[in-house]
Amino acid sequence: MKQRRSLLVAILVVALIIVVTIVYLRLTQPIGFPALVAPIDSRAYFAAVDSLLKGATSSVDVILYQSRFYFQYPLSKSNRLLLDLLDAVDRGVEVRAILEEADWNTENSEENRDVWNVLRNGGVDAYFDPLRRTSHSKLVIIDGRYVIVGSSNWSHYSLDINNEANVIVDSKKAASKFTDYFEKILAKSSKTYTSALPKMNASEAAKSEQRYFVIVDVADSAKYRQDGGEGLIYFDDIPVSVSDRPLEEILAVDSLFFEEAPGETLRIVANRWEHDGSITLAAMDVEKGDTFVRMLRAAQAERKKAKQLPHEPVTIKWYKALRVIPAMNELYAKEVFNLIEHSTERIWIAILDARYYDSTPRHATKTKKPGEAPSLTNVLLAKLVSAEAGGVDVRFVCDMGWRGEPPRSKVEFLKRLSAAGASVFEDPRDVTTHAKVAIFDHDFVVVGSTNWSYYALEENNETAVVIECRELNEHYAEFIMALGAKRFQAGAEGMPLEVDGDRVALIETRPLVN
After folding, report:
1. pTM of the model
2. Which residues contact 299 (CB under 8 A, 6 or more apart)?
3. List of residues 6+ apart from 327 with CB closer than 8 A
4. 322-371: per-residue pLDDT in tens?
5. What Rg value do the Cα atoms of the chain yield, rounded?
6. Quick one: how far is CA 496 from the chain centroid?
7. 37, 378, 314, 6: which is closest to 174 by C-alpha?
């Protein structure tokens, strides 16, 4: 009997040791798996993704924050990627797409609605994400094997102009993790466009205090007039301008547009501006009954031409990564906190947006505990300041915008980081640095869609990946070095940041515009 008890105790002790060891390893060693990885930055993105989509054999899943089908610019790169999805459907590939829709970003939602219409009529299983949750991801999963994450939207500026950072991950395990993420968002998505914009006629719109709305009015009451480059739709004596963008972008709005639509109800997405007592109604989109049909015909005609184009030359340089760690949504901040705390030599970052908050943004949905920082970006800033104080080379390149002044909360972030001794640079003003990439020491890289703002870190759907790969780290070191030429000037107002653990002491902060 004693022997049996002794044996049982021994078995329990061994089991406990095994469990403790597994838990210890689980806590001290980040989850990850080896993979092949390849950078496809800026102009390299299109050719690589175009090639992978053309070679898809079983499945394609995409989450697109911003997608554009430019009817006035046939065969543009974003058009061709979208047409790749339709061609994949024709080959028997299962294609699913989740597009962003948000009540706070009317223009992007309306543009995505046009893309959704093209995709669903081409056989793609197309959805809109939940209205109250921003899906800022730029995610492509192909054949359960290739995952593309990064900063590139499917738009002209991302594909042709901006500084962007993206990677391809060749790994079935990574693809499985990101597919699980895709499925969770899909379960809450809708196949119906659920715009929350109020609907009204032109007379009501002129009196309304709404910023954005849908004018629903009959074409019989509309008259169109063009004066030089300016187009105006008149509903009786109420003008709606269509001059804020090229007229052809609104699908040939002209006098004939209305004459061919007697009795039809028009749908005009517009915004309202008031300046010096004068009210302007400006159209963002104009539709009548046959608009979508015309769009689909244009897309089909373009498909035929696209198939005749020669394939773009593709150069993809693959590296072996020791470890790849998916970092979606709130996981991003946890992984970056850990990497900052364990860096001993360098932390270099190139990013579109970084913010410092003296209070939680007014539209935030999360409630902060007493003493908790208003945003995790404040904590990131504090950790960078601590790293710089500990002798780590902190280099930060941030986009400063190409029109107007950057938000005050961004300037405050950069001022505080610069005052702490970090090397802070502005990107060239003539090109948007839309990348979100960071390197840590000489081995780790983080790349994805996540900006350093409250919403990106705490509320949005975002996709990023942590990669342990010395060669990729060096690639992005060169990428970041090439961006920053002009030192950020903190000025007399720049003040140091007091750090107390993970808490950030607020010093003489001003109200910020968020």
Report:
1. 0.86
2. 69, 71, 83, 86, 118, 122
3. 334, 335, 336, 446, 448, 450, 464, 465, 466
4. 999 999 999 999 999 999 999 999 999 999 999 999 999 988 998 888 98
5. 26
6. 31
7. 37
